[in-house]
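Reply to thread "Modeling small-molecule complexes from scratch"

Following up on the discussion above, here's a worked example others can learn from. I took a protein sequence and the SMILES for NAP and predicted the complex. Inputs first:
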Amino acid sequence: MRLLVMGARGMLGTDILQDWKSDEVVPADSAEADIRDLQQVRALVSKVRPNWIVLTAAYTDVDGSEKNPDLAFAVNGKGTENVARASSEFGARLFYISTDYVFDGTSTRPYETDDLTHPLNVYGSSKAAGEQAVQSFAREWCIGRTSWLFGASGPSFPEKILRASESRPELAVVSDQVGSPTFTRDLASAILQLIYAEARGLVHITNTGVCSWFEFAKVILHQAGRDSIRILPVTTAEFPRPARRPAYSVLSPASLNHYGITLRHWKEAVSVYLQDLRRVGKLS
Ligand SMILES: NC(=O)c1ccc[n+]([C@@H]2O[C@H](COP(=O)([O-])OP(=O)(O)OC[C@H]3O[C@@H](n4cnc5c(N)ncnc54)[C@H](OP(=O)(O)O)[C@@H]3O)[C@@H](O)[C@H]2O)c1
C-alpha cells in the first residue's frame, strides 16, 4: 500500500511518518505541493499514485484565522477541495483530519458523528468547509475529527505550560472549556488502523477521558514533577482570545469503537509524551 501524507512535517504528520513502518509512505508539504493550487496537487498525486492520501495539512492558527479568514478558507476549504478532486481523479482514497471546533459546544453529551455542525470561529468554519468539500468531491473518503492535539514535535498546549512553568511560579489556565486531549502518536496509530479497516464516513478519534485546560495543565505539571507551580483556574471571560471556542467539545468514541479501536486515557498518553520530550531534549 502506498500512502501520501500531505502535511508531513506538521505535528501530526511527523508522528504518522515515524509510526508507519510497514507501508510505503510518501511525505509532502507545501514545498512539494501548495494545496491551494490544484495543478500542483494534481502533479503530485499523479506522480505518487497513492492508494490513500492522508490530508493533515491545514492552516491551524485558530486565533490567526480570525485576522486572516481568506487564508484559512483558501487552505482549509479550497485547498481541501483541490486534494479531494485530485484523489478521485487518480483513484486514491482520502483520509481528512478535521476538528472538534466544527461544533458550537452547546451539547450536554459527547458529540456523535451525525450531530449538526455549527462552528463558532473562522478556523472551525474553514474546517467545516473542508469536510463539505471532501464529501462533495472525493469518491472514497474518511473524515477523522479529533481534538486538543499534543505531540513531541509540537508546539502544543503542554509544551507552552512546561515552558511557562520555567519562568513563572503561578499560571492562570481556563477551567470552563472541556474536551479530550489527544496524543498525536495515538492518533497516528488509529488512522493507520482505520485505513487498514477501510473505514468510510465520519469517525471521532480522541484519547479516552475528558478534562478542562486547567485540569490538563495540572496533570502535565504533576507528571513532570513540577507540583510547586500554582495553577489558578480562570474563566474564558477573564481570558479573552480573538477566536471564540466551544465550552464543551467532547467527541463520542462510538464511531471509533465501531472499528474495535479504543485509545488509552489521555493521562497515560501524557506520561509517554513527557518521555518523548525528554528523548528529543525538550525536557530535562
Ligand atoms: N492542533 C490541534 O490541536 C488540532 C485539533 C484538532 C484537529 N486538528 C487538525 O489536525 C491536523 C494536523 O494538525 P497539526 O497541529 O499537526 O498541524 P501543524 O503542525 O500546524 O501542521 C500543518 C501542516 O500543514 C502544512 N500546510 C499548511 N499550509 C499548507 C499549504 N497551503 N499547502 C500544503 N501544506 C500546507 C504545513 O506545511 P508547511 O509548513 O510546509 O506549510 C504543516 O506541515 C490539521 O488538519 C488540523 O486542522 C488539529
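What I'd highlight from this example: Residues 69-89 form the longest helix (21 residues). The chain has a mean pLDDT of 96. Questions welcome below.
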